[in-house]
Amino acid sequence: GLFNGRSKMIALFVPDIINPFFPELARGVEDFTNQQGYTFLLCNTDNNPAKEEAYMHALKQKSVDGMIVVSSTISEEHVKESNIPIIALDRILNANLSSITVKNRKGARTAVQHLKSLGCHRIAHICGPENASNTLDRLGGFLDEVKEEPWFLSSYVQAGGYNYSMAVQVTKELLVNHPEIDGIFAANDLMGAGVLRAAQELGFHVPEDLAVVAFDGIRLSETTSPTLTTMVQPIYEIGRRAAEILIHHINNPHDAIQAEEFKVELVQRESTQVKR
Ligand code: RIB
């Protein structure tokens, strides 16, 4: 209220409001904060540090009580300047914040092990944006599984940027240059959908010629043709948990920061339903 300097408002930063992962995540944050009597503000940042800073500045003027950020770029300095509790969600920041993420490296390993168990032995990874912590963790998990394999070529890693059209484009280039590839691990579901599209355009049959596994478990993964095998994240729950921790920090500003990692789960669908 007026006398304690609190606005009873919290904000969530997301990099890409078009990606269905983020509305589901936002819903988890909003449900919890709303139940606690907070007004919820959503800011779309496009992964753009200038936009993030402008929003942080505006929110400070409005005396927002706390923030949850999905970001790769917010610096320790800006966190200190803001002088309010901030939680890193989905991506780790080098800024000494409480964080809620999933087991990205382990999940990526499970995805690639799944492709190997189908008999794939020329596996490629289409990876996310280079500065996101979860891109590096998923890439790390992929490399853990393939780097000792005799068939592994580093050119099998290609950047796609958590983005559908980029994934279509880079997958096409990859498959034209390496038609021997028989399995692809896409860093998220949108990119997995892009891989399916590229394969279809080039006449590769999924899963017979090419098995595909992705990451996230957004509803889209159940509606593509073929449906997508994916590492399902508890998207709504991690949003809700981040909100819970944020409100805890708002009420207990001196409590120690904490990092939580949620499990992901392989859900097999048509894109890997292959008999070899
Ligand atoms: O689809 C959005 C992706 O970016 C997800 O994989 C999520 O973990 C985020 O970082």
From TrEMBL:
GO molecular function: DNA binding
Region forming the signal peptide: none
Superkingdom: Bacteria
Keyword Membrane: no
UniProtKB keywords: DNA-binding, Repressor, Transcription, Transcription regulation
Protein name: LacI family DNA-binding transcriptional regulator
Native source organism of the sequence: Oceanobacillus locisalsi
